[in-house]
Amino acid sequence: MRVSTFLVITLILGVLQVVFPDYLKVFGIKPDFLLAAVVMAGLFFQMRRAVIFGVSIGIFKDIFSLNAFGLNILLFGLWAYLAAKISRKISIEDNITRTLLVFVIALFENIASGLSIVYSGSLIPFGIFLRIVILGSLYTALPFALIFKITKIIDHSVNYD
Amino acid sequence: MFNLNKKNLIPLLAVISLLIFLSISISTLRRPALDLSKEPFSVVSWLQREAGGIIFYHHNLIENSRLRKEVDFLRYRLNGLNEIYLENARLKNNLSFKQSSPLRFVCSRVIARSADNWGSGLVIDKGSSSGIKKGMAVSTYLGLAGRIVETTKFTSKVMLFSDPNLGVSSLVQRSRQEGLVCGTLGANLIMKYLPEDADIKLQDVIISSGLNDVYPKGLLIGRVIDIGSEFSGLSRYAIIKPAVNFSNIEEVLVIIP
Lengths: 161, 257
Hints:
The complex is a heterodimer. Chain A is an all-alpha fold. Chain A has seven helices and no strands. Chain A starts with a helix and ends with a helix. Chain B has helices spanning 6-24, 26-55, 57-94; strands spanning 104-113, 121-124, 137-139, 144-151, 156-160, 167-172, 178-183, 189-195, 205-208, 220-229, 235-242, 251-256. Chain B contains three helices and twelve strands; from the N terminus they run αααββββββββββββ.
């Protein structure tokens, strides 16, 4: 995948997630498109580039978050690293496996973020915690197949031109 | 998968240290980044508003005619209330009550929102150059909405009441029962630390108590929709339906004390 295509797609996803979250909400949950972009970086770029993209996207997300500590900088860097490592070890070519990988990473991301809030002393009802962890992860993973397809079409047309 | 030797260890530790440094210094990084993002996000949110106006034209037309009727009705009610207000002011004056200072507001537009599901926040297009400071209360026309947690020169970050990190001392309007209202990340709020014999009923109105300097007394928070007992059995809690719909706030009023 071309870096320019990835950057444009990530920028669009970032704007969608930050400016239009209300239109994307289902059961009060919004998808984490930026996390999907990080996994995409891990799958399609070399390790070093993937980690740099992961950390940069983490910085972007943390700029708009309310936490004093930039958790996403650490986590997104880690997810990009792990996705890059896994894609070198196992061949991940079909969209279903990629979507499954996004779901698993989103699950870990949501559990880590949720636990960091719970351990900082805030009370989150268990039902809401589970809803965000499970539905949030599903909702992050499911559009990924579509995002990947669009990215592939754009990338292909740019290469063809 | 992970082969750690001396050669790999030093660069790995350097990268991890750099990431931890970045994580800790994120609040410093945020200020210039938020200031820089004001213009592009303002343009995008303007486009969103205009596009919404075109797409939902028919819906807006019907809503407009309904709202016009409601405005007429409220004007009629307001006339009556104005009389009561003036009478109240006269009586207070006669009784030499200390007059509370009128609130001053800075009206601001929402340009971005929190990017994750684990926090509830907004970025608004006014900052310290408009007199906004960290800790100021934020409301909408419907009721109390949140608190300023960070300001830059031209933007500010608002933590909404639906965020579990924010609590406000509040009162049941009818019985003056005190409690602490916190967010749950869901659609409703929770009022905690109510004694077992608390005088609270369904549909009671909850307002800010004014016990701290940040939130003025009497601002509407919401209505009680459920009451329950804590697991310990020592206290009760109430579920509050907020007056403000936190997911579709477009403009806010920052309260200048």
